Amino acid sequence: MSVHSAIRNPQSAISVTFTLNASPVTVEIDPADRLLDTLRYRLGLTGTKEGCGEGECGACTVYLDGLPVNSCLIPTYQVRDRSVETIESLDPGALEAFERCGATQCGACTPGVVMTAWWLHGHADLLRTHTIREVMAGNLCRCTGYDGIVDAVADSLAEKAGKGKEET
Amino acid sequence: MNVLLPASLPEALDMLARDSAAVPMAGGTDLLVHWPVRVEAHDRTYLDLSRLEELKPLTWKPDELVLGGLTTYWDVIRDNRAGREFPLLVQAARQVGAIQIQARGTWAGNIVNASPAADGVPVLMAYDATVVLESRRGREEVPLDRFYSGYKEMQRRADQLVVAIRIPRRTLSLQVFEKVGSRRAQAIAKVGLAVAHSAAGWRVVAASVAPTIRRCPALERLLESGARVWSSEDLYPAIAQDVAPIDDIRSSARYRTRVMARVLYHDLRDFWRGERRA
Fold first, then answer.
1. CATH number of the domain at A92-167, please?
2. Does the domain formed by A4-89 have CATH 1.10.10.10?
3. Residue B24 is part of which domain span?
4. What residues of A are in contact with residue B19 (Cβ under 8 Å)?
5. Tell me: the pLDDT tens digits for B193-215?
6. What are the chain B neighbours of A123 within 8 Å (beta carbons)?
7. In terms of C-beta distances under 8 Å and separation of at least 24 residues, what long-range contacts does A63-68 make, across chains too?
8. ipTM for the complex shown
9. Using CB atoms, which residue from A34, A67, A137 is nearest to B35?
C-alpha cells in the first residue's frame, strides 16, 4: 500500500540524512513514511520484506544503531543521523548455515531471520541468559520451519567458535 | 500528518505547551501498529522524542533506580544490576514482544499507552514506582498505583511528558511475575500478575483483568492477615473484590478469574498454608 495515498493534508517533505549500510544517504520523505517503505520503494533495497506490518513477524528486521528492530514500526524521520543496516549489507556467508541445514522454505521470513541470527553472532554472550529460541522469537516462519532455523543458528555459532579456536 | 522534531527536552516541552494535541512518540511500537491507515490519525501531529538524549539513561542512586523517560526494555535487560536487584523488571521486559520490540519500546511508553494488558506496568507498580511528569509549568510526581483513573484515563495532562520513573530500592523477601498468554513470546497477556513483599508490605498487581492495571487490596489484606488459604477457589471472594475481568478476543472472564486464582495460589502456596512467613 502506498502510504502517500492515505495522507490528506501532508506536512511538506522532510529531508532525512542517515547512514545506510555504511554510506551516507539523504532522502526527501513524507512524515508518514515508514522506514520499511523508504528502504524498499525509495532506495530500492527490496531484501527487507513486509510481512504483517504491525511488528509481529520480524520479516522487516533491520539494524538501527546496531540493534535488530522492525522497520515497519519506525517512521523514517526517526532514523535521521542514525545508522541503518539491511540484509544487503551482510556477508553472503551469513546464509551458508541456512542452506546447509535446510532452514529456508518459502523464503519470505528468511531475510529477517538471517538478520536476527547474524546479529546474535556479534552478541553471543547473550546465550548465557537467553536460548536461541528466545532470541529468534521475534521472527515468525509461516512454514513453521523452526527446528531448521534453530539448527542453522546453532550450527553457524559453533562453526564461528571453531574457527575462532583455529585462528588463536 | 505532521511531526515536530525537538532536539532537547526544553524544546519538546515548549512545543507541547503550544500544541497540546500533539502525540508524543518514543519507540513507536504501539503507535505505529495503526500507522497511518487509521483515518483519524491523518490529521494528527506527532512529537518525536527520539532525540532527547537526556531521557535515555537509567540511573542507579543510593536509594532508588531511576528509569529515564526513554529507557527501553532492552536497556534494562542488559543492565546486570537490574537483573539482580529488580529481577521482575527483566522478566517482564523479556516477555514484551521479542528483541525487535524490546530494543524500541520504552517503560514510560508502556505506562502512558495505558493498556490493561501491559507487561511493564504491573512490575513497576509492584515495586511502588512513581511517575515523574514534566511540563513548562514544572514537575509533578504521581505514584503509579494512583496514575490510572479508568480505561486509558490517567493523571497526565496533555502538556506533560513522562521524564522519569523512580523505583525505590528495598529488600524484597518475595517477588514473582507471571504472564499467561497464548504462547511465550509475541503474545498479549490473558492474565498478568506481579507480587512483591518488602518491609512496606504486600503488593499484588493484576493485569488484563480490569480496565486498568491495578493493585488488589483485598488480596493484599488477605496476605497481610496471615489467614490460611487451602485452595485456589478460596481466593475467589478477594479476587471478586479486586478485579472485573471481561470476555474479549483474547480470553473469557471465567478463564481469567480461574487462572488468576490458580497462579496466585501456586506461587504463594507456602504463605497461604502458613508454612512460610514473609
1. 1.10.150.120
2. no
3. 1-47
4. none
5. 999 999 999 999 999 999 999 99
6. none
7. A63/A115, A63/A119, A64/B103, A67/A119, A67/B74, A67/B99, A67/B103, A68/A115, A68/A116, A68/A119, A68/A138, A68/B99, A68/B100, A68/B103
8. 0.92
9. A34
